[in-house]
Structure formats: C-alpha cells, structure tokens
Amino acid sequence: MIPLLEAQNITKRFPGTLALDDAQFELRRGEIHALIGENGAGKSTLMKILSGVYIADSGEIRFEGRPVSPANPREALEMGIAIVHQELSVVRPLTVAENIYPGRLPTNRWGMVKYNDLFEAARRVLEQLQVEINPRATMETLSIANQQLVEIGKALSLNCKVLILDEPTSALTEREAEILFGLLRRLAANGTGIIYISHKLSEIFALADRVTVLRDGRYIGTRVIAETTPDEVVRMMVGRELGDFYPAKSAGRGQPLLEVRNLRLPGLAAGSSFQLFAGEVLGFAGLIGSGRTELARAIFGADAKAEGEILLEGRPVQITSPSQAIRLGLGYLPEDRKAAGLFLDMAVKLNIEASSLPEVTRSGFISPARERVLAERYVKQLNISTPGIEQEVRRLSGGNQQKTLVAKWLSIQPKILIVDEPTRGIDVGAKREIHYLLRSLAQNNVGVIMISSELPEILGMSDRVLVMHEGAIVAELDGATTEEQIMMYASGQQGG
Ligand SMILES: Nc1ncnc2c1ncn2[C@@H]1O[C@H](COP(=O)(O)OP(=O)(O)OP(=O)(O)O)[C@@H](O)[C@H]1O
Ligand SMILES: [Mg+2]
C-alpha cells in the first residue's frame, strides 16, 4: 500500500542548530500517527516542512506516491495538508467565524461579506467540536482553550486529507481533549491521516495507532502502539532510563507564609480562604474556567477588582500591582507564556533578567557581567537548549521557551512562587527537571502554589490539594487523594 504522506532523508539547518538530520516519517491513510521527542527534537520543524512553512535543505516528500515540494502553506493546503500550529496563530480582534474562514469569507455579488452565512457555517464547524463558542464573539474574549478549539475548527473546515496537530491539547482540559479525540477518531475512520504531536504519553497510548520518535533531529524509530510500552517510548526519546518521575513529597511544613481570607472574584458571591505554608507544594486543581488563574492573578495584584484580605507572614497587605507583589517576595509564572510571560523578540538573557533587575543593576545601570552570569547559571541549571544566551526567545522550541519563563521567575528568588500550568508543552525529561526544581524550592522553604490541569501532575507533586469550582475553593484534600475524588469536586458533583 502506498503511504499517504512520506518524508525521507530530511535535513534542515538553522543558524547554529541542526534541527533535522536525515529524518524520516511515514503516514498511512486513516491512521493516527503520534510524533514524540524531547523539546527541540525537531518535531515542529518536520511538520512545518510537510505543511510548506519551511523548505527542507535536502530530502524528499511524497504525497499519495508523488514527489511534492510545498513551497508555502497555501500550496500544502491545496494538496490537502492542514496544520494546527503549536503556537496559536489566531487573529485576536476578529470574530471566531472570521478566524475559521480567513481569506475564504462568503461574499455576495457586490463583494460584501455575507455575515449570516459565515456565522452559520462557523456554527456548524463548532457544533462538530461540541463546544459552546459564539461564532460572533471576538477571539480576544475567548479563553486559550477555546482559541485553540477554534484553530482546530479552522483546520476541520478545510476537509483536508492530512491533518497535523502540534500539541493541540496543551491548553485543553481532559474533557475537552476527549471530545477532540472522538472527533479525530471519526476523521481517521473516514480515511484522513492524522499526525499528532504531544508530550503526554497517556494521550498517545489512548489515541494513536503508531508512534514515531525523534531525538536531536534524528529518526529513532516507529512502533505500533499495541506492541510497545510507555517505558520503551521514553527510553527511545531520552536515550536513557529516567528514574522516578516525581520527587519525594515534603516531610513537614514551616510557618504560614500566605493567608487568603474570603477572597472574592468580581461578580461572585462565594469567597475563597486558604493558607500556604513554607516548604509545601499546594496544588490547585479544577476545570478550565474554574477560577484558578483568576484567583492567582488577584493574589499577585494583577487584578484589582477582587475583594478580600491577604496576609503575608501574618501581616495584612494590600497588593495592588504585580511589581509590588514582586517586591513583597511573590512570583507568578503565568499560563500563557506568549501573552503574559515572555518577550519573544528579546534575547534569552534579557528575558531571564526582566523581573530581577536589582540583581543585575548597579546604581541603575545593567551590569553586563552580572547579567551574563545570571543568565548562564539558569540556562545551565534548567538545561535550556539554545546556542547561547543572546538567542531570541522566539527561535527556541516551545518547551525551551517555557523553561526560559521558569528561569525568569527563579531569578527573583521569591518566597512564594505561584506557577500556572508550569509544564505545559514540556517533554518528560524537562518536566521531571521542573518538578524536582519546584520541590527543591519547597525544601528551601519557599511556598509553592501549583495550578495544573494535569491530574497526574497534581497528584505527583502536591502536599495538599485545593479544588476550585465556579470561582471558589470547594475542597481541601491531602496529597494522597485520587483523581476520582478531585474530579468529583471539580465537576461540582460534591461539595460547593
Ligand atoms: N526559526 C528558527 N530559527 C532558529 N532555530 C530554530 C527555529 N525553529 C526551530 N529552531 C531550532 O530547531 C530545533 C528544533 O526545534 P523544534 O521547534 O522543531 O522542536 P520541537 O521538537 O518541536 O520541540 P518542542 O517539544 O519544544 O516544541 C531547536 O533547537 C530549535 O531551537
Ligand atoms: Mg514543537
């Protein structure tokens, strides 16, 4: 049988990086084929070559048996190859419907956009995804999860033969991911070939028919999912045994660092109260939209509209801005690294120092020597793969961008660190490094609040778990709780 899409001997070099080194990939009609590898392994680059975003330096692509060389994304689309990129490419001020049909808006004979037709078509696409998104809403009013679903809707509307999804669930809840999986299975059953990039092994094992592993730009191998194990795949990815995924939990805890009393998010009747102790990792579980990020932002002074009391080490404080929060010893690693975390056009070193200026300035001037030492220390500690600290952050792979964001917040040496989805898009090896790092902060008496939508991560890391539902904390569970118990509270079936 002729493969649907085939890539052979693909090599791609960027200045300072050999992103792909004689890589290969084969996709059959009707299969879901997972692509996995550590951050920077070359997954996105290979997919961008298949979808016409980049041109390979050498190698061959065959589509339905014929050699092709898509020179740009439009040519790839015309052949039937669509991609949902890892980094969202939505146009924020436009409506959902216009984002689903960019450049293909239905017009009447005077060239005016037929908005009713457009909204109706978009509504049908969204209906397939079983999501309640108003096609007339502007993109910027949507959560990241919903923006991502719109991107997927856009690819679906193209009726493509090959659908490439680059980490599509990194911002989705498990329930939203399940809906997406159902849809992908239906598409595959109808003959579409699907390439699925994810760092979540459980997803890959639940969804895919085959998996291909890349390491350092090289092809390591392809396995039939039913004939391999997560351990084997991890070994292929990292080239070694990893050891325990999660560090040991805390043996005890110190004094209260933070106390939140009856903090009410705007427009809500119920308030939230909790304490954070030195030396603990406090997990925040809940569905997307349950208010975890809003609560964190309110504590960090990024949202002035919340009401309630905050005490730091027993003293009442009014935190009215993030810069004040940083001076008081709080750090907040936001969930959306692009919108709120990183300066993509700036060098790695400038991003790392951005929130720790006192450490690198001397009498108001940035000291280049200190800046270099600080940045190099974190690049080394977090194993950020970059040709150097002068590299622009946008040129790093997604996972290495996330590590740069972590470095930025470590560099302020906070007493309390709030991390919001800290390992989104991070490979198993780097994820483990970040987990051990958060735990070592806690061992050094930092109080860590970890918001995560990945239940295994919540269970693996937390000394205590708070569950949020509809804007308020509804349960406090100990670190030995179960996924079922958390989900029961998170979905509002119990408590409240
Ligand atoms: N536009 C670019 N300019 C320079 N280097 C790049 C560019 N795009 C990617 N790279 C480099 O090529 C290598 C492969 O990157 P790629 O984005 O394909 O990795 P990935 O496997 O998708 O990783 P992740 O899991 O983190 O998304 C990385 O070292 C990255 O820094
Ligand atoms: Mg990538």
Describe the structure.
This protein has 496 residues and is an alpha/beta fold. The chain has 2 domains: 5-238, 3-Layer(aba) Sandwich (Rossmann fold), CATH 3.40.50; 256-490, P-loop containing nucleotide triphosphate hydrolases (Rossmann fold). 33% of the residues lie in helices and 25% in strands. A 6-stranded mixed beta sheet has the order 6-7-8-3-9-10, sandwiched between helices. Strands 16-19-20-13-21-22 form a 6-stranded mixed beta sheet, with helices on both faces. The chain has a 4-stranded antiparallel beta sheet with strand order 2-1-4-5, covered by helices on one side. It starts with a strand and ends in a 6-residue tail after the last helix. The mean pLDDT is 87. The structure holds adenosine-5'-triphosphate and magnesium ion. The site of magnesium ion has 6 residues, from α1.
Q: What's the architecture of the largest domain in CATH terms?
A: 3-Layer(aba) Sandwich
Strand arrangement in the largest pleated sheet: 6-7-8-3-9-10
Largest sheet: 6 strands, mixed
> Which small molecules are bound?
adenosine-5'-triphosphate, magnesium ion
E-strand count: 22
Structural class, judged by helices and strands? alpha/beta
Mean pLDDT: 87
- The low-pLDDT segments are none
Oligomer class: single chain
Q: How much helix is in the residues?
A: 25-40%
Name of the CATH superfamily of the largest domain: P-loop containing nucleotide triphosphate hydrolases
Structure annotation, total helices: 18
* The CATH class of the largest domain: Alpha Beta
Instruction: Could you tell me the CATH topology label of the largest domain.
Output: Rossmann fold
Shape: globular
Strand portion? 15-25%
